[in-house]
Amino acid sequence: MKPQLIVIDDEADLGSLVCDVAEQSGFDVSQYTSARHFMQQYDNCADVIVLDLMMPDIDGIEVIRFLSQQQCTAQIILMSGFDSSVLHSAQKLAGERGLSFAGSLTKPFRLPQLMELLDSLEIKTRSHSPRTIIDPPSANELKLAIENDELTVFFQPKVSLNGDQKAAAEALVRWQHPDHGLLTPDYFIDTAEQNDLIDSLTWVVLRQVMSQCSQWHDQGLGVQVAVNMSAHTLKELNLPEQIGNMLQQYALDPSHLVLEVTETALMEELIKSLDILTRLRMRGIRLSIDDFGTGYSSLIQLYRAPFSEIKIDRSFVSEMDNDREAATIVQTIIDLGKNLNMKTVAEGVETEACKEKLKTLGCEQAQGYLFARPMPAGEFFKWYQKYLGL
Ligand code: C2E
Ligand code: CA
Ligand code: CA
Predict the structure, then answer these.
(1) Residues 319, 347, 352, 364: which is the catalytic one?
(2) Is it true that domain 139-388 has CATH number 3.50.50.60?
(3) Residue 333: its pLDDT value, please?
(4) What pTM value is reported for the model?
(5) Residues lining ligand 1, CB < 6 A?
(6) Is 4-120 in CATH node 3.40.50.2300?
(7) 101-139: per-residue pLDDT in tens?
(8) Closest ligand 1 atom to the C-alpha of 260?
(9) CB burial string 317-356: b at 16+ within 10 A, e below
(10) Which of 142, 152, 172, 233 to mutate to test the pocket of ligand 1 (most atoms within 8 A of CB)?
(11) Where are the domains of the chain?
(12) Is 347 a catalytic site residue?
């Protein structure tokens, strides 16, 4: 069965043109010149929706809201005659509303551009069962999972771009669920945060990480591991001592531990977190500011907090190849890092071109699917040995 594509554009001529190109690329197409008609007839079966933002009756933003309410799983392509900043905002909105954004076209665009975009789409052949959505766990289910040791840590390599041969990783928690299989954190972190379980989750992760790290040391691979810290945990006043004790217990040098804190987490109760962060830093533990560029931290806050590294958010990194504004933001953050004497790390690196660009700009470390996906500890060890040619 051919994949289905829907075009919604009040300009009928342009719409038919898109349809023609899509048909040549192997799609079954339908065309709407009115968003209202589209919404009345929508059956949630499309694989791709090409949507014009500016339409007279109902505009593209309203259609985005509608599609999100329908839990639409189609890939969305946005078209607009506005400048790219409008497309950016609409794209962000689509992502925040849980839609899958596949690309955008600024009118007027050339046909090869459209063809290229259509050809690049990864259409998951629908078995015509809508995506199975499992409800988030209850607090009690998650609590039991923690007690029953069902949480496990995966490791994603962070590779160095400046030629040094140091091994590093980010620890990412997973839930090995007896019925649902391996679950990623977006399924259960919110439940943990909202039910006072995030601290115990963090301690489970920290213990697994330190135990693993010390095993790797014994096997001759010194790996620096980064752990994600929630805002809540950062308010525990005795956190520095507790972490310090655990490091001692596993005979680990503090510089092998990096704590990643998101910009947004930092902003809540800044004074209290600053106290704790400073004491962690005094013990030699490295601190990284995560998802940088998405929050609201000012230069002054960045200067005051004792961070050792900046982690550039993947929304900018992954767009660097085809978006000049994203590339400029990445460059600015790298320069900022250099000037403040902080290491810069790029996450979400998916292409060779992106990696090369980051290297040229002077970014020190990179992480992303180009190198490897998060994996269990055993695989990670083999991966790094091979990568470093050991
Ligand atoms: P994060 O800290 O931004 O972690 C990076 C996420 O990006 C991971 O998703 C990783 O699998 C994904 N990723 C890595 N490379 C690429 C790439 O090239 N392309 C794309 N598209 N994605 C990439 P994951 O494992 O699902 O984790 C999601 C989030 O859950 C993390 O975002 C972090 O905020 C949170 N999280 C994970 N583990 C823990 C934990 O132990 N404690 C806490 N508090 N939060 C955690
Ligand atoms: Ca992180
Ligand atoms: Ca991140």
Answers:
(1) 347
(2) no
(3) 94
(4) 0.74
(5) 156, 172-173, 184-186, 189, 202, 205, 228, 230, 290-291, 314, 347-350, 367-369, 374
(6) yes
(7) 898 888 888 888 899 899 888 775 544 433 345 788 999
(8) 2
(9) bbbbeebeebbebbbebbeebeeeebbbbbbbbbeeebbe
(10) 172
(11) 4-120, 139-388
(12) yes
